[in-house]
């Protein structure tokens, strides 16, 4: 454990799971709750909003910062992922010195063997991100399951920007019979409505400004969906990006929120959601919007 001093406050930081477990055991009472926010660091306001919700709803809040190698199918993306632990600690301490930080090494999490467990998510893993990032969700499932087993949280908070990931975590928890309440939280956006992401830091000022087009296209797609077919809306989105030299569309999918299966026809009493992935200068951005 390490106590980090910032502005005369002290925050507990743990680099090893054994010490973290011992500490959490020492502060646990019969009716206390632990909120948990797993992150890969490079914290932004979206992360902090999840933590604020946890602080309001739980006696104790644990935040993890760990860039998980098993969920990256692109080694270059893993190498370039921002690592800003010192700045992250300052943000956490400013938010609340009561936050308990777990910043493990790869060896501490994986015991020297950073490989993924294989999961069956009932097909949720085969859509969208799963199609374009093979093995990604096995890596997500592996790290989230291990973190849940270490922290043993009452409530865990995830942003809806990664809606497919949220659904997969819920499925993993149900199948593994883990006693964790998984809570999805609204997307936090920048002033131009670009979904907040640690990857945004890699964009130039111009690219970041122009990336507002992603949300504009999503909101227009939502309007069109009210009167047009999923196929028609999808074709419109593809054409919108064909005319933009800065952005390259990887996918746009309208899917059933529960199954994540692409929708051909609109059915009553079903919730639909649009999912998008876009490249700008080899930086991959994702976003989503509810269509109902």
Give an overview in words.
The chain has 292 residues and is of the alpha/beta class. 39% of the residues lie in helices and 21% in strands. The protein contains eleven helices and ten strands. The chain has helices at 17-27, 45-57, 75-80, 85-95, 106-110, 129-132, 136-151, 163-176, 205-210, 212-225, 230-242, and strands at residues 2-6, 9-14, 34-39, 60-65, 100-102, 155-159, 181-185, 248-256, 272-280, 283-290. The strands form two sheets. A seven-stranded mixed sheet has the order 1-2-5-4-3-6-7, with helices on both faces. A three-stranded antiparallel sheet has the order 8-9-10, covered by helices on one side. Helix 7 (136-151) packs across helix 8 (163-176). The longest helix has 16 residues, at 136-151. The model has no long low-confidence stretch (mean pLDDT 94).
Task: Give keywords.
single chain; 292 residues; alpha/beta; 7-stranded mixed beta sheet; 3-stranded antiparallel beta sheet; 11 helices; 39% helix; 21% strand
Unreliable segments of 5+ consecutive residues:
none
Task: Based on Cα principal axes, name the global outline.
Answer: globular
Distance between the termini: 47 Å
What does the largest sheet look like? Answer: 7 strands, mixed
Strand content: 15-25%
């Amino acid at each position: 454990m390490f106590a980090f001093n910032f502005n005369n406050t002290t925050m507990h930081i743990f680099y090893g799971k054994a010490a973290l477990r011992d500490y959490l055991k020492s502060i646990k009472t019969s009716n206390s709750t632990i909120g948990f926010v797993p992150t890969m660091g490079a914290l932004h306001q979206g992360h902090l909003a999840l933590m604020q919700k946890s602080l309001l709803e739980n006696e104790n809040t644990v935040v993890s910062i760990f860039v998980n190698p098993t969920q990256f199918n692109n080694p270059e993306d893993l190498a370039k992922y921002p690592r800003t632990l010192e700045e992250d600690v300052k943000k956490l301490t400013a938010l609340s010195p009561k936050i308990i930080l777990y910043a493990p090494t790869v060896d501490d999490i994986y015991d020297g063997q950073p490989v993924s467990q294989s999961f069956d998510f009932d097909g949720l893993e085969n859509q969208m991100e799963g199609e374009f990032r093979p093995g990604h969700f096995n890596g997500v499932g592996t790290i989230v399951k291990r973190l849940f087993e270490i922290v043993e949280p009452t409530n865990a908070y995830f942003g809806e920007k990664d809606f497919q990931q949220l659904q997969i975590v819920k499925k993993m928890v149900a199948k593994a019979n883990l006693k964790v309440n998984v809570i999805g939280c609204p997307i936090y956006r920048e002033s131009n409505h670009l979904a907040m992401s640690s990857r945004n830091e890699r964009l130039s000022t111009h690219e970041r400004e122009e990336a507002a087009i992603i949300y504009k296209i999503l909101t227009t797609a939502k309007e069109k969906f009210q009167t047009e077919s999923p196929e028609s809306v999808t074709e419109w989105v593809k054409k919108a990006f064909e005319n933009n030299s800065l952005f390259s569309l990887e996918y746009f999918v309208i899917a059933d929120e529960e199954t994540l299966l692409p929708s051909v026809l609109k059915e009553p009493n079903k919730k639909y959601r649009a999912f998008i992935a876009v490249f700008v200068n080899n930086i991959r951005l994702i976003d989503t919007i509810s269509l109902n």
